[in-house]
Every structure is written in C-alpha cells, then in structure tokens.
Design brief:
The chain is built from one helix and two strands. It has one domain. It has about 80 residues and is of the alpha+beta class. Bound molecules: zinc ion (ZN). It comes from Leisingera aquaemixtae.
Length: about 80
C-alpha cells in the first residue's frame, strides 16, 4: 500500500504509469534526464490512490521536513479558489 508521507514528495508514493519509474524514484524524460515535474498521469494516479486510501476530504500537507495526512483537510476548501 503506497505511503504518501514516506517520500520527498507525495506523488512519489505511486509508480509512474507513463515512464514506469518505481515508487520513490523521480520521473525521467525519454532521454534519461530527470524531469522537472512528474508526468500528469502519475499525479492523477497518486490523487486517485490517495482518495481511495484516505477519502475525498483528506489532504496532505508539508510539516517541517516531512508530510502529514489531514483527514479533513479539504473540508471547506473550494478547489477553484487558489492562493495568489
Ligand atoms: Zn513519469
């Protein structure tokens, strides 16, 4: 079961469906260079697995050097409203 708090970034908890990188490994470009961002399919996958594990109201937040799951982090937050 993926652990979203175990890695440097929560998205690293799942394998990338696009470039096939294993959990814990950053996405790679076809050239072999490290990508500057994760593949979109991996973010979608991580989101789906996270909601499956923790429910639609949960969020994950940066706490110090690590990550913590807040079971009610999305309650009261409107997804369209982003901070400037
Ligand atoms: Zn990837």
């Amino acid at each position: 079961m993926p652990d979203f708090t175990a890695h440097r970034h929560p998205v690293l908890a799942v394998r990338c469906p696009d470039c096939g990188r294993a959990p814990g490994n950053w996405c790679r470009r076809p050239s072999g260079h490290m990508a500057s961002d994760f593949h979109v399919s991996r973010k979608v996958q991580a989101d789906a697995v996270f909601i499956d594990q923790h429910g639609p109201d949960a969020s994950i937040e940066r706490i110090g050097d690590g990550w913590a799951v807040d079971p009610c982090g999305r309650v009261g937050i409107r997804p369209q409203q982003e901070q400037p």
